[in-house]
Design brief:
Length: 444
């Protein structure tokens, strides 16, 4: 293997002082544990590696599940040069430098480069834009790792040029295998210490790790250093984990608290919503994660009963991004109070899901002729546009017409709510369409 293939971070030359989690990183693909849905028989990444082909990808999943390690192993499997950048410390200048070197090696020696960007969600839009031409031209293959939903954090043009693979938290049996390997390995692990780990301690460690191999190995290493009789107990492990925050951004509390936050808004309880907001802010939760949930809640739970809720939530998201913490707490609190206090309607949420259900379960029905465009004489001769009346030319700017495909003519998706501004919308639709917009069972 050419020496430059792993020039930025060679995984075989680890110092003895490196953390256990780093020392125990798999060196070959057969040592990798977990993600069998991708790497097992018939898995998409297994098939890619078997064909010795490489493509750009985004690895999305929680910490400690193997994203970085797998990126390194993929580069080794396909004999590609591996370059690692952190989105926290790298900028556009670093990207251009690596692109120039990748281009040189590709043209001069036919060596492909795999550029691994850790925490790619922290790259700004302009930084992600800078990646595009190099990914598209094949100067390097990109592997981005993120703990945040790439649909929100990675720009669409980059997503369209990469495949997204979702990683799962490691299962208990995976953590067991990783712990056993660390306890047994005398060169890179703790094998020389001849440690004993009873069932209670092992169970405690797996629960505390919550699917995160790095967390499990870090806690095991700290506890092992204090094991005077070579026995790692639950008490030692608990002491090793003592500094864990009471709110774990990456564990159950993260999901439970955001769930309580959104459900308190939905329940029209601003005090409870503010309490959960405060808990998340105090724990250092990503304000953009909170802001995104507010935007979703504004559209899903408040909806057309108070359309200004969505405007305010988006404004709060922009303000929080612009000013950052600690001032971001104020627009987030303002949006939280407004949403919790606003009238509620989920009619838009139900309407689009009902329409999508019909679209996905049936064929694409023909568009009525009077709604079709007729830019040519042939189209006009086929009846396109015939009988169409421009509503703004009619009294009251309304003309009763049949606009759904014929087979769906009686289908109903939208049922207006009866609170806030939506009450007036429902009355207006009833005036125009009569009984079609009278509430009945199945509505809100």
């Amino acid at each position: 293997m050419p020496p430059e293939l792993f020039e930025t971070s060679e995984i075989d030359s680890l110092e003895a002082t490196a953390p256990l989690a780093t020392r125990m990183r798999p060196r070959v693909l057969d040592e990798f544990v977990g993600q069998s849905h991708l790497l097992g028989a018939g898995g998409v990444l297994a098939s890619m590696l078997a064909a010795n082909r490489l493509h750009s990808m985004i690895l999305f999943g929680p910490p400690g599940c193997g994203k970085t390690t797998l990126a390194r192993l993929i580069a080794r499997e396909v004999d590609a040069r591996f370059v690692e950048l952190s989105a926290v410390t790298s900028g556009v200048r670093d990207l251009r430098r690596e692109a120039d070197e990748a281009k040189r090696l590709l043209h001069a020696r036919r060596i492909e480069t795999l550029l691994f960007v850790d925490e790619i969600h922290r790259f700004s839009k302009s930084q992600q834009d800078a990646l595009l031409p190099h990914v598209e031209s094949g100067v390097f293959h990109l592997i981005g790792a993120t703990t945040e939903n790439p649909s929100f954090e990675v720009i669409s043009p980059l997503l369209s040029r990469a495949r997204v693979y979702t990683f799962k938290p490691l299962a208990d049996e995976d953590i067991d295998a990783i712990i056993d390997a660390a306890l047994a390995c005398p060169e890179r692990g703790l094998g020389k210490m001849d440690l004993a780990l009873d069932d209670d301690a092992r169970g405690f460690l797996k629960r505390a790790a919550n699917g995160d191999a790095r967390a499990a190995l870090n806690a095991l290493e700290i506890a092992a250093e204090s094991a005077s009789d070579n026995r790692v107990s639950s008490a030692l492990l608990e002491a090793a984990l003592e500094k864990r925050a009471r709110y774990d951004r990456l564990g159950d509390a993260h999901y439970d608290t955001i769930s309580a936050f959104i459900k308190s808004i939905r329940a029209s309880d601003p005090d409870a919503a503010l309490y959960y907001l405060a808990r998340m802010l105090d724990a250092g939760e990503d304000v953009q994660f909170i802001a995104r949930r507010l935007v979703i809640s504004a559209a899903e739970d408040i909806g057309l009963a108070s359309p200004n809720a969505l405007t305010l939530a988006v404004a709060a998201q922009q303000a929080a991004h612009f000013v950052g913490m600690p001032e971001a707490r104020i627009p987030l609190a303002e949006a939280t109070i407004y949403l919790a206090s606003a009238p509620k309607s989920n009619s838009a949420y139900l309407a689009i899901d009902a329409a999508l259900d019909v679209v996905r379960k049936g064929p694409d029905e023909p568009v009525p002729l009077h709604l079709r465009n007729a830019p040519t004489k042939l189209m006009k001769s086929l009846g396109h546009g015939e009988g169409y009346v421009y509503p703004n030319d009619a009294p009251g700017h309304f003309v009763a017409s049949e606009n759904l495909p014929e087979k769906l003519r009686d289908k109903r998706f939208y049922f207006p709510g009866e609170l806030g501004l939506e009450e007036g919308m429902g009355a207006r639709l009833k005036t125009w369409w009569g009984t079609r917009y009278v509430q009945h069972e199945g509505g809100e």
